[in-house]
Batch of 2 targets.
Target 1
Amino acid sequence: MKNFLTWEQTLFKDREIFEFGHVPDEFLYRELQMKNIGYAIAPGTEGKQPQNIICIGPPGTGKTTSFKKIIDQAEQISSSSLILAYVNCRYTQTHYSVLAEIYKKMTGIEPPTSGIALKKLYEKVAETLAAKNKSMFVILDDADFLILRRIFHDVVNNLLRLHEEYPLNIGLCAVHSVSYPPLDDITSVFIPKIVKFPAYTWDETFDILNRRVKIGLYPNVMETGIIEKISGCAVPKGDIRFGIDLLKRSVINAEMRASKTVDFTDVDNALIEASKDRLKRYLKVFTDTETALLNTASEMGTSHAGELFDEFHKRTKKGYTTFHKALNKLINAKLVDTYIENRGKNGRTRVITVKQPTSG
Ligand SMILES: Nc1ncnc2c1ncn2[C@@H]1O[C@H](COP(=O)(O)OP(=O)(O)OP(=O)(O)O)[C@@H](O)[C@H]1O
Ligand SMILES: [Mg+2]
């Protein structure tokens, strides 16, 4: 019985280390991105206009964590003449609530949830900022949701045009994971610098996961081979969150077997549930059309672009441009893979493979 756990024992030294919202003390491989964001914000600390930026990178590449770190640092400089207004658009999905959140960050006070017109709230934001004589940098995290709701353009345009009526210095950062923001019609006010967050490499992934294991689990609970296996599962998804989730679920599986160590079958069993949860999170940023394409591709398994389009068109009556945009979004989310197949005399064709079927 030596190798078995009794019910009150746990393999976690610190379970919180594996929660999604955890901000790690050691945040590696994002120096360049943090530096670029810092450059954009810096003029604001002197009361000047911060630079507009877009942060773009697949899910689980450290975008939100970078901002949490930067906001922490900024809060330590108490004399700053800059307000950082962070809004998570995953949970704040209407134009009014985005602005209300900004107002709350500026004043510490919640504006009324109804009975005040959007225009009036804009005036309040502008007047308050002008009275404080500070610059403001607005961070619209998960701005994909504003695109999904078709309000991205209005929010960005209205915020960045406030200086036309008031003496204000407002900079803005939109953070995106799967949709590239439509800039064509707002570029005159929003000329952003792009900061890219590439997916972590295998070595980086292993290092990040290994460090979590060291601080979050008791010694010898998880051997290196298991961390390597989990890294191998996370890298193709380009999503470190998936790797952290797999670590946690594998340990829970080992605990359920009352074992003191995690074995490979614990990872295999964790993989199924973790993949389902990941997919659910992603489906939230997809329109009905994009979900329809994913379902169609999923049913077909592997298909040529032409066949997939025909089937998609039959089901949704949508045209090629919509198909193309939706396909790109699925590729960005790393839910499907594509490659070009050479068909000799008949030319080249694009092949699409679904990495994880939507059913089952
Ligand atoms: N370089 C890193 N070192 C340690 N942990 C990291 C690193 N990058 C990301 N993480 C961890 O991975 C998880 C996901 O990171 P984060 O929330 O910053 O991703 P994101 O790019 O904002 O994803 P999404 O687009 O889905 O919002 C967090 O728990 C975070 O602590
Ligand atoms: Mg995020």
Target 2
Amino acid sequence: MNHFWMPFTANRDFKKAPRLFSSAKGMFYQTPDGREILDGSSGLFCCAAGHGRVEIARAVYQQLSELDYASPFQSAHPLAFQLANALSQIIPGDLNQIFFTCSGSEAVESAMRIALAYHQAMGQSGRTRFVSRERAYHGVNIGGASLGGMVKNRRALGPGYPNVVHMRHTWQEERRFVRGQDAQGQHLADDLKRFVQCYGAETIAACIVEPVAGSTGVLVPPLGYLQRLREICDEHQILLIFDEVICGFGRLGDAFAADAFGVVPDMMTMAKALTNGAQPMGAVAVSEKIHNAVINATKNEQLIELFHGYTYSAHPAACAAALATLTIYEEEQLFERAAHLSDIFLDAVFSLRDLPAITDIRGYGLLAGFDLKTKGEPGLHGYALQKALYEAGLHIKTTGDAGIIAPPLIAEEKHIQHIVDVLASVLKGVG
Ligand SMILES: Cc1ncc(COP(=O)(O)O)c(C=O)c1O
């Protein structure tokens, strides 16, 4: 136990009483002592098609047996093109150019690099500022962490990327227990306008938001909020980036949040459910306009247009996993299934509202968050819940004192009821 420095974990406490998963199938994990744990958050929002999908395992095995690796720089393999084509079929608008990465964090860094490269190509290299949002989570690398708006994630960051400003988050204290999109709050998007007035549009490269802020505890955008961001971006030639690392692939009842909310950004980042969590992979979907500007800025076709990429970009095993995953999503109509289940799911989660431990609940699609009363230092109550749930046979994600529920899209009503029953009984204990 001593040598694994665990990420985002209370290492010392964990190692005294480890919470281990040894296998998984469908909706359930198994523990080494033979208990079943219902997965109420798709692992970490990854396993949308449920666990142990043999179709994906077979595709990865077959691919590794045939071609284990090919350099993605100046060479390629067919599956990378197939996957980019398949993604462009389900991604809205003209976001048809796919740049592959190995994680959500790298997708965000890549989107930042592409935004900067685009403005340089357009002769506007002064546009280096990024507008993000309080309570945002965009991964852990220097760029994404600088965009982030959760204080503990910024503590060991130092100066980070220098040119980031944060809009207000969309949680409104006086508007608790709003299910779906709040009719009030669109005005919060005008923070972007204020940054234009304060810094000048000619300094702003892009505005990046999670359409539903996930990791902070599920903040659903108010009605008209994303539309307003789109309008301001258009007015001032600011790129709009949706970070769909959690929202993408059916979580909100549509392929992407961009579909669910009817707003098409200029770039979209994705990861997690892209491979059903079976292989590490992320991607940035980029509009034709941005792609063509960057590509055509280099006049000589013999030369590289964008000096950016990863050794494992479009890794053959990850491409195979993603293609098999997309086939499952389509054949089993899992995005439609999420849309169908959403009301049942939100009814069930909102039935917890009268528990004294809970101070707010929010949700959209098959994604919901709740806040717990803080007890002592922030984060302790959430951690106590996480530990108690493991003993009670349920896994959900907690962040600080918030809980996030995001079951696999294959969930049945009985699983949703089970999640809520276990939460209610455990919260009575730790609340
Ligand atoms: C919106 C968002 N962006 C980026 C990331 C980072 O992804 P990864 O952990 O794969 O680097 C996450 C992870 O939860 C996320 O939710």
